[in-house]
Amino acid sequence: MKHKPVAAAAALLLFPLSACGGSASAGDGSVVTVTVGYQSKTINTVTAGTLLRSLGYFEKDLNALHDGHTYKVDWQDYATGAPITAQMTAGKIDIGSMGDFPLLINAARGKQLGKPTRLVSITGYNLRGGLNTVVTAPDSTLTSLTDLKGKKVSTSIGSAADGTLVRALQEAGIDPDKGIEKLNQQPAVGASALVAGSVDALSQFVAWPGLLTYQGKAKALYDGAQLNHPTFHGVTARQDFAEQRPAVLEAFLKAQSEATDYLNAHPVAAAEKVAKATELPAEVVYLYNGAHGIATFDPAIKPQLVAALKEDVSVLKAAKLTGDVDVDSFVDDQYAKKALGADYATRLAAKPAAAASEVWPKGSTGAAGSAGSEKTLAFKSPAEALSYVARHRNGIRAAYVPDATTGTLWFADKAVWVTDGEELLPFVAPATAKAYIAAHGGARVITYADALEQAS
């Protein structure tokens, strides 16, 4: 992840008018630099960041404006949303993407500093909250959130993952301020702390929980979808930029829509592109961004997400990170509506795809040069997926199954498996499996090897 403060400063010297369209003479026309802040490793923002950049759609749509300007895009990669907000309120970033809680801080800081911003589209979302997960070490004896009382937990305060942790602890009857020892750490630092054993659990957003679990460095303790509270990532733009360069913002949103269509039509190829750019395993990217992944991608600003954003304000206020936030004035879908036309209403009404089990077979070289098939196989049930895996044990790149109660997709070999008569049921976390067993006499937890044997 590369910041470019020197380049940004140089750009400001060359183009002193403003970051959103500072121009310098360039022959017959002028050069306009558009600065986009994104988070390459926060992979639910890829349609406004990593994937969009790799596809070149924004540059293409800018060139199609034919308004006498020559456009250049300065892509700036950050680890979290906080520095993007800082750069936006300083007038150095025009468009940024980040999670729901950072978006609220973005709105609050912008208003406070007289540099208002606007939420103009959505990238990836999960209506139940499955984008955030609490994980523990693979050999941890912790099995539920109540076990976290008095323990050290790493999270990034002010992030969506922290919001999930706060709400989940409150539901478990634990004071999120006094009941645990919370460490405010960047995701990579928290991941290292968990691996080193200096914290008992890690609450983080994509793709950290899936990555650590895939690597065998963590296991799920709590599935954020248990909250049944929407989580999402979105695109924010400076209000002055939007007003001064509406055609540029609309070009961005059109390009984002095109990248979304590409991801939905070519989910494996998209995962490979993102993996190549981020050095994340494609199997982890696909867990979140795949055809039946944890995230749904759609630029339309759905009412359920706006309602969730309003409820999130109280969590940030309690943490003294913001005061009141006028969400209604922050949300501004006029530019997306103009960019997408009649398609906006269609997207607004669209519903997430039903959860399904998938297997990614090994095969010919994939789009990014890695050894994988460019197509996955979908199955009607987890048992059918396991049956296929059992028959092709050496030919499987990854297998994914949805939690039997929340629908959150997880790696089949990392799930908690329950047998209930002839049924095989996967769960992301021990607590959800335990809850199912308590309500279904005769159901019991079995190992993944036993689940494969039963499926075969």
UniProtKB/TrEMBL annotation:
Family matches, as SUPFAM superfamilies: NosL/MerB-like (SSF160387), Periplasmic binding protein-like II (SSF53850)
UniProt entry keywords in alphabetical sequence: Signal
Domain SsuA/THI5-like: 84-270
InterPro entries linked: SsuA/THI5
One Pfam family in the UniProt entry: NMT1
Signal sequence, start to end: 1-26
Gene3D superfamilies reported in the protein's UniProt record: Periplasmic binding protein-like II
Protein name, per record: NitT/TauT family transport system substrate-binding protein
Species per Swiss-Prot/TrEMBL record: Streptomyces pseudovenezuelae
